[in-house]
Amino acid sequence: MDNKNKFDLHYFLSDVSFENWAKGLNKNDITYWNNWIQNNAEHIETVENAKSIITGIKFNQHYPSNEKVDQALARVLPKIGLKPSTKTKLNKTRTINSSLFTIVAAVLLVLISYTSYSFFNSNSSTVHKTNFGEIIDLKLPDGTSVVLNGNSVIWYENENPRYIHLKGEAYFKVKPIPNTNAKFWVATEDLKVAVLGTQFHVNTRKQKTNVVLDQGSIQLELNNGKVTKMIPGEMVSFSNKSKELIHRKVDTETPYALWRGGTYAFNEIPLKEVMFNLEITYGLEVQYESNQLMEILISGGIPNHNLQICIAAIEKATGTRIIHKDNILRIQENPIY
Amino acid sequence: MELHSDETIWYFFKKGEATGFSLLFKKYYPPLQVYGLKLSNNQALTEDCLQNFFIQLFEDRHKQNSINNLKAYLFVSFKRRLIKQLQKNQNNIPIIEAQLFKSNFTFSAEEISVHQEIQFLCTSTLATLINKLSSREKEVLYLKYYSGMKSADIAEVMDISYQSVLNVLQKGLSKLRKSSENKQIRNILKKS
């Protein structure tokens, strides 16, 4: 009786590892809870209810635009006897009132430690973030186009829209500014890309940064201090952690950044690499019936806008059977083949 | 992405400078405006009321010493103000909340993401199904998944117990699941 009361909705909802299990996030948590459920089948109903509360419904927030909010703010400020604070005003406040600034620094230090982003102000910076499986096209203020792949984020200070921070995967088509030769920058945890006007692809997954250059010329400043130039058709891969640097030609017939057109293109790539892309973009976990399956080679294009179609295409290309259940893709041999 | 914690924003807001006020306004005007709109179905009234709400919040900033949970506090105080305003417009006839918000919380298909855990036919189906729920269920779903609020905070905003929040959530979601299954079955039958 006591036991029954203990495992109520609240018990599951207040457990972070359970939340991870429900979202299919952490392998240890998934194993633990799958196991727990098998041994505690009598609680399955509560578990399912708790899971459905965690996953819930996904909404697109239709919030008023920044302009609308700014307009409303401009109407309200005079009524309380305050002048609108512009970006420059904010900077002035900092230099004049040094005590104010120390407090900002102290409070924000905490933020920095867990977000690992450097200090910037919500008034003066712009953030673009994609969810799992979502691809967005962006136009930056300077005319540069960016295609941001799923589960990725870019941000920049409004004063400097040609210095972009990236986490995840993106394709850039940089607009040159010939008059001033102003450079365009993309910064990751591993390196900085300096650009004059070009098309290239940056990927920061797998704890390293991959840069593939399609057109033009770019210069990389690795975070170990080295500087290296790239020519079209080359790929540079660098990890700040392992200090491993790879610089080689890639097959431009099957560009790395093809996902931006809605297809992943693969040329003799092992299945495990292909599935890794899916894991990252859709937030899934992949399990294999046997290790041999991981090594099956795939060539060709796989559509990535719709997960179901994507899975069907991979099944066909590899002759496997893929079972999709609760954020887990289980790959098995197909007895028909 | 959270750039400033609520503690930071509230600290600067209380200092009475434009920066603090703007930070709070920019962060909470959008979610409060949509919440008010969902409650009242009246854009002009909501925006008017919300701007006055911020003004009063600023003028009374010294009255509140510390606020444990800024988001819940703002949602609950704004809701109270909005109800008062609506009652005023009804010639001060005291009416209960349930009557006041009879046809509130309707969702459009565009507000529903295509990525759902539950398999639905399309976003407009899900929107229709949600709109058929009771207004209490819709408000809890709204606060939880649209505004991203914790269940304990929803209890505060809606003035019900934490356990009731969980019960309403569970009931609302299982209704959606059931009617989505029915709808899918009906559609399959239609096709064949």
UniProtKB/TrEMBL annotation, chain A:
InterPro entries: FecR (IPR006860), FecR_C (IPR032508), Ferrdict_sens_TM (IPR012373)
Protein name (Swiss-Prot/TrEMBL): FecR family protein
Keyword Protein transport among record annotations: no
Coiled coil stretches, renumbered: none
GO molecular function: sigma factor antagonist activity
Keywords: Membrane, Transmembrane, Transmembrane helix
Residue span, FecR protein domain: 128-218
Residue ranges occupied by any Protein FecR C-terminal domain in the UniProt entry: 264-327
UniProtKB/TrEMBL annotation, chain B:
Signal peptide: none
Keywords: Sigma factor, Transcription, Transcription regulation
InterPro entries: RNA_pol_sigma-70-like (IPR039425), RNA_pol_sigma-70_dom (IPR014284), RNA_pol_sigma70_r2 (IPR007627), RNA_pol_sigma70_r4_t2 (IPR013249), RNA_pol_sigma_r2 (IPR013325), RNA_pol_sigma_r3/r4-like (IPR013324), WH-like_DNA-bd_sf (IPR036388)
Membrane recorded as keyword: no
Ranges where the RNA polymerase sigma-70 region domain occurs: 24-90
Residue ranges constituting the RNA polymerase sigma factor 70 region 4 type domain according to the UniProt record: 126-176
A Gene Ontology BP annotation from the UniProt entry: DNA-templated transcription initiation
One Pfam entry name: Sigma70_r4_2
A GO molecular function held by the record: sigma factor activity
Protein family per UniProt: Belongs to the sigma-70 factor family. ECF subfamily.
Protein name in the entry: RNA polymerase sigma factor, sigma-70 family
